[in-house]
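Help! Submission page says 'invalid entity' but I think these are all valid:
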Amino acid sequence: MSTTRPSATEPETAPEEVERLLARAAAAAPSWGRFTPAARADTLTAVADALDARTGELVPPAAAETGYTTGRLTGEIKRTTVQLRMFADRVRSGAYLDVTIDRADPEFVLGPRPELRRHQVPIGPVVVFAAGNFPFAFSVAGTDTASALAAGCPVILKTHPGHPRTSAATAAIVHEALAEAGAPEGVFAMITGRQAGVTVLRDARISAAAFTGSVRGGRALFDIAAARPTPIPFYGELGSINPVVVTEEALAERAEEIASGFVASFTLGTGQFCTKPGVLLLPRDADTAQTVEVIARAAGEVAAAPMLSADIATGYGYRLAEITAAAGTDVLVKGAVSTDDGGVPQVSPSLVRVASVAQLRAAAAVLLEECFGPAALVVPYDTEEEVEDLLADLDGALTVSIHTSREASGAPGGDKYRRLVELAQQRAGRVVFNAWPTGVAVTHAQNHGGPYPAATSAHTSVGTGAVWRFLRPVVFQDAPDDLLPPALRESNPLRVPRTIDGQSERLPATATES
Amino acid sequence: MSTTRPSATEPETAPEEVERLLARAAAAAPSWGRFTPAARADTLTAVADALDARTGELVPPAAAETGYTTGRLTGEIKRTTVQLRMFADRVRSGAYLDVTIDRADPEFVLGPRPELRRHQVPIGPVVVFAAGNFPFAFSVAGTDTASALAAGCPVILKTHPGHPRTSAATAAIVHEALAEAGAPEGVFAMITGRQAGVTVLRDARISAAAFTGSVRGGRALFDIAAARPTPIPFYGELGSINPVVVTEEALAERAEEIASGFVASFTLGTGQFCTKPGVLLLPRDADTAQTVEVIARAAGEVAAAPMLSADIATGYGYRLAEITAAAGTDVLVKGAVSTDDGGVPQVSPSLVRVASVAQLRAAAAVLLEECFGPAALVVPYDTEEEVEDLLADLDGALTVSIHTSREASGAPGGDKYRRLVELAQQRAGRVVFNAWPTGVAVTHAQNHGGPYPAATSAHTSVGTGAVWRFLRPVVFQDAPDDLLPPALRESNPLRVPRTIDGQSERLPATATES
């Protein structure tokens, strides 16, 4: 497909317009916050319905702007609407309010204790910085927007410059659906341009920020958020090396499967996934050379595919040159770069062997930093301790993956890998077994985050837990019942789940509305 | 009581010793994190038992160093041990692990979904900066230390220079109790001196910080935490004006009670409470002058009492001079300052009237900033809208208190005060009715925090919720059961509460261990 890619600079939303949108978001916050859980859930569902119904309008601009296939883009829109519906369900159930009541206790050991009733309230208007590599799931109506709206916060969305037409088309659908569903006018706004984004991030009316992107860009914005007169939380997902450890048993059992799985995972979406496995650690034994050869052959057979933009391809080229210049590296597959007549850079995968874990660690600043694109390292290790020590010193990662034996029916050697698993847990937000890190399920238990720089907070940005980023607790002490917010009234008119004196309240069956 | 107060500078813990304590804390983190909930709860309980048993050793140095009465100090130690036991109970129940399991779903709408099992893990070693005004409850073994230990994090405690002997005595008891209970050696350490505190805060082995104190000091430390190569969360509780709104009905009903309650609250502990009510807003009517007179008379009758240190008394004096110099202010009670032969500054309360809400707002930078000490403002208001607009623009506060009619049996006038309550909720972490903000119950539902500068995060620092500050989620994907942490195993050997596929699991009755 021949396309013309936009440049990475977009027109800036005019300062007066930015001011107007900020004022509107601030004005909308109280009324959007007062929506009942059911009404807010209905509104989110309306947005999901509209995006589903109009998927056909969204795919062509996205395909042209990202180079992704129609299949990938259709699937990503589906993921986006599933995500919106999941947040809608979460909101409808009232669980996100975390209603907690402690009855008054005149006999409390420290003296008479008042009645306390706590719920969660929206933190206030949020600025969301869209990602470039997921033009739907982490962009205009993606997980950050969905979770902030679910929490009751207006959103000002700063577009990613890589897909302006896709962003505008999505925003138009979101706007229309919100208006039809009766949401206040300022609940959602879109801005473009770097300066407009910074202006909004600095504005006193903004209460939180969410971001998915590079370490450099994310850290610059994080620093701005932290330096404000009133600092605000900056929920960033920045970068991750996502190491994969293959145990001896796993390699003995399924070397070919591991080789092909690894190649499929690190080249998925032309390697432009934050969960791309960047380093494969293989036990060094008689067959390692052969396994590496299988991986190299598979990588060499992957066709060139478009990258998101010329800028990203250029950055990828620099990183790759840096990596291959490091001592102890050996290029097994040298990816080709070509440019089609529309100016789109097409890249085929690269595979680099590092001689040893010691060499990998010696050049950690180059080799253990994220490389955004279809390249990966293969590193033979000599002892398990070596891998454990490597993990212990690793920067925070979104994922660590471990391949163990599948045959031992859930018993991969007792305590042998316990330290490895504990270290993986210390350095990552998700520990994956016998699978690949690309693909992040949208569920309650999901955690997409990890120690810095994987994330700048302890919160997940995917799954229902993402809503907590945009809420804060407020407790009412001895309040007259009719002055309480509805979720906290004794009669529980919203029928939300409650914890009373430390115990979950049993609601009658009719209370289950989700 | 004649005492000699220490100067506000302490000897610095030597750099080599700081390094040794950091290394020890880092080394202790994994094993302390692996303690079962029950074992960790027992350890916390042992610390509480030791502090209860040795209260008699702690009161005399604390009385000498703070000027607080024996009654106050004994009560505060009790509060500290109740707090430790509450965290122990919370840990023992396993609720803090928030175990969440999503079963694999081969039919999931977005494609086959793996099994995900999430729990919370300790964030890592924590530096706690002790407060000066609560030498036990917010100091060495206070809420920050207790909640970090409960979460499984080693603590390095930076003492407050105001009570060095009290700190050392408390730390000795904590050390001994932890060692006897079998906690690893580096789980708790105490350091002294400003530079040592900053060194620890900057150290890569530290994963979070907690602080209670002034806006200036807290913000300086917040900025250091945010500027680290790896930024860490800084949980600060900085300052709050804690406004109190008295409605017409309340004043008509119980003017005398409100007057005496206000004076008792703002002079409690010589006004050295972060929840001190700094501003009383009274409806202006025929009787207001008389009510103000009653308040002034009550304030004038409060005896001089010692402040925590000469430095604090000096700072208080400056703030008071600044306040009384503001336009529209009128000193109703001018507190006396005296110094006893031990050099302890004794202060009697001051009361300042501000002519109107407009005058209050005109000098907001002076009048609506916390004044640490026994002074308060009384401000007549002309309309409810005026009060609402004032609240809407207020800096974040720990509390907003509202006095309504008690007689109308919970119906204080329908919608009349709804906007006021909503604005209070927007600007504060706790909304108090018909009572005073001093006194923070230690319970599940409590929230001690609020928008900046009341707090630097959305988390409470008091009550069981405080433990969340020191945890982060990790999810296991398709893990072999015997490689899972015990809390996540299918058989639930720790018998912790679990949410499975979005529903609370019903545990058999024997599972309730708390």
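Support: the input was valid. A stray whitespace character was the problem, and the output above is from the cleaned input. Chain B touches chain A through 81 residues (CB under 8 Å).
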